[in-house]
Each structure stands twice: as C-alpha cells, then as structure tokens.
Write a structure and sequence with these properties.
Layout (H helix, E strand, L loop, with lengths): L1 H23 L17 E17 L3 E20 L2 E18 L7 E17 L4 E17 L6 E19 L2 E16 L11 E16 L1
Antiparallel strand pairs: 1-2, 1-8, 2-3, 3-4, 4-5, 5-6, 6-7, 7-8
C-alpha cells in the first residue's frame, strides 16, 4: 500500500511540474499578414518622351526614312480585377519626326509630323508592382509634305496604333513606364502641289519608343 501511495504522489508531482513549465513558456501570437499587393486602380496624369523612326512614301517619287523626337502629356484610368488591369489612356505629343528624299525631287521633298495624339485601350496583367500590357486604338496627327518651289500640302489624319509596354510602380501612386507604339496615319492626296500626278499620295508611318512617368490620384 505504501508503495502505491508513493507512486501516486510522484505522478501528481510530475504532472504539476509539467503544467507549471507550460504556464511559464512564452506565448506566441502571430502578427497580421503583410499584404504586398500594389493597387493599379485610379485616375492618373503623366509625361512622356522618346523618339520615332518611320517611313513616308511619295507616289511615283520615293519611299524614305523619317526620324525625330517626341514629348508630351498623358491622362488615363485603370481598373484592376485581381491581377487583370484594364485601362483607357490618351496622350498628345509635340513631334519632330521628319525626313527628306532627293530621288526624283531635286532640292529635296520633305515629310514632317508636328504633333501626334492617341486614344487607346490597355490590357495588362499585374505582378505586384510590375504591369506588362498591350495597347491599341485611335491615332491622330498631321502630315506635312513640302517640295522645293511648290506650295506642298498638309492634313490632319486619323489612323490607328498598336503597341506594348511595361509599367513599374515606385511608390503607392507613382509609376514609370517604357512603351513601344506603331502608328499609321494613312496618306493624303497632295497631287500637283507636291509635283505628283493628280491623285498622288503622301503617306506617314512611324514606330515610337518612349518612356514616361505617371502620378495616380
């Protein structure tokens, strides 16, 4: 009987010691999970600048290269659904894209673009602060054709644009981007004013590479 009593007392003491040790152990409470998702939804304004390289064709005269700089402003709005980002964006740039040909045009025939604007949709897939996207829509701009000694001609034309880019968030409402756009403004009838046959056209296409910065509100 004594041995049984001693064994019971020993078991009770061991259990009490374990409970005391458990009570003295530090209590760990996990903190709130860190949310690293960058939000792209909102209205934004920005600036952009870069360069354009393209081609112009004067019917029955020549097709020649164009190049020059662009700089301007941007406005837009993004809607984010999960990782998908849908947006609408517009911009207008001063343009110095131009080129000259002397083929069948003594003294040089020049095509010049003085301004470009686009109104585009954007579709992207966000990886936190990184937003690769495709874009496309309407392009507007002028085409100016100048032959030596003749009045030449100019027109504001509507065309189309497609492209792609990558936008990166720096802080909660500021981002930077790099973008490529292909722009086709079509052509216009310059005819005898450009020393062309009646109905002779002048065309304008360009590829634009530009960088930009946006501030979201």
């Amino acid at each position: 009987m004594n041995r049984v009593l001693v064994s019971c007392v020993a078991l009770l003491a061991l259990a009490g010691g374990s409970a005391t040790a458990a009570d003295l152990s530090p209590y760990y409470q996990p903190g709130p999970a860190y949310n690293s998702i960058y939000t792209w939804t909102g209205f934004y304004v920005g600036i952009n600048g870069g360069g354009g390289w393209g081609r112009s064709q004067w019917d029955a005269v020549d097709t020649f290269d164009l190049s020059g700089g662009v700089i301007g402003g941007t406005v837009g709005y993004n809607w984010q659904f999960g990782q998908a980002v849908i947006g609408a964006e517009g911009d207008i740039d001063w343009s110095g894209i131009k080129g000259t040909s002397t083929v069948l045009c003594l003294g040089g025939c020049e095509t010049r673009n003085k301004w470009l604007a686009t109104a585009r949709g954007r579709l992207g897939f966000a990886f936190d602060r990184f937003l690769p996207y495709f874009t496309g829509g309407l392009a507007l701009g002028d085409i100016n054709a100048t032959p030596p000694g003749l009045p030449g001609g100019s027109i504001t034309n509507a065309g189309w644009t497609v492209g792609a880019g990558l936008e990166v968030g720096l802080v909660s409402n500021v981002s930077v981007k790099a973008e490529y756009l292909y722009i086709d403004l079509g052509n216009f009838n310059c005819g005898l004013n450009c020393a062309l046959a009646p109905g002779g056209n002048v065309s304008f296409t360009t590829s634009i590479f530009r960088a930009g910065a946006n501030v979201r509100f």
